[in-house]
Specification:
Layout (H helix, E strand, L loop, with lengths): L6 E7 L3 E8 L4 E9 L7 H19 L5 E6 L5 E15 L2 H18 L3 E13 L2 E3 L7 E15 H12 L4 E7 H7 L7 H9 L6 E2 L21
Parallel strand pairs: 1-4, 4-9
Antiparallel strand pairs: 1-2, 2-3, 5-8, 6-7, 6-8, 6-10
Length: about 230
């Protein structure tokens, strides 16, 4: 078996339900799904282990490949949400990618210094203030004396992420990314699309104000590659 290429595996975890999906990112359709209801209304790792044991093998047989990576979509009261406001003088220059990136990087470093036990799930630019005016999205090539951002952070505590990572190691599966289920669902609340489609769209940058973190090992890519979508 080889690593999956055209498919992604999504594991959704909430206090009362476990769901798993195999999604074809080329055909944009779901190939496999299963779910169980949890009566105790809390995350039971034994139940999760049994659920994975039954479904991972089925998915691997279906695609003829090992599942090496997985995306976890989690709904849990332990998830942490906060925002950071940050401002930078621009000295009447046209705003560009570098102007925004430097503020995002600075805010990310501030978050990590303040919350060392948290793993960032989402970085979302909530609003831009350019020359004292608020904008929902970044305006391209606008002359600005100053730029202010309100940046939302959603994170998962290590006390929650480590047990999940340790459990998945049993199946030799690495967690690609954690997603906040509440955020994913609320972003598409006005659309009638299925949940795995929502997840795929978020991962592909449907929210133009979300910064997509790219692994440093990626060649010729900046840490905030998807942020270029703000300028399209």
């Amino acid at each position: 078996m080889n690593e999956e290429s055209n498919t992604q595996t999504y594991l959704s975890i909430s206090s009362n339900k476990l769901e798993i999906y195999l999604f074809d990112v080329i055909k944009f359709e779901n190939l496999y799904s299963n779910e169980i209801i949890i009566e105790n209304n809390f995350l039971d790792y034994t139940i999760l282990d049994n659920f994975l044991d039954k479904n991972i093998l089925k998915i691997e047989k279906l695609i003829g490949k090992f599942v090496k990576n997985i995306f976890i979509i989690i709904e849990n009261e332990q998830l942490f949400r906060t925002h950071i406001g940050i401002k930078k003088k621009n000295y009447n220059k046209a705003l560009n990618y570098g102007s925004v990136k430097s503020l995002v990087v600075e805010s990310k470093e501030l978050f990590q210094k303040s919350y060392r036990d948290q793993k960032i799930m989402h970085i979302i630019v909530n609003s831009y203030m350019i020359n004292g005016k608020n904008f929902e999205y970044l305006k391209k090539d606008i002359q600005a004396d100053d730029l202010s951002l309100i940046i939302n952070f959603i994170s998962i505590p290590e006390s929650l992420s480590y047990p999940l990572e340790n459990l998945l190691q049993k199946y030799q599966i690495k967690i690609n990314k954690y997603l906040d289920k509440e955020y994913v669902s609320s972003f598409f609340e006005d659309e009638t699309i299925k949940f795995p489609v929502m997840v795929c769209k978020i991962l592909n940058g449907s929210n133009l104000n979300e910064v997509q973190l790219i692994p440093k090992i990626s060649k010729n890519r900046g840490i905030f590659e998807k942020f270029f979508q703000l300028f399209s």
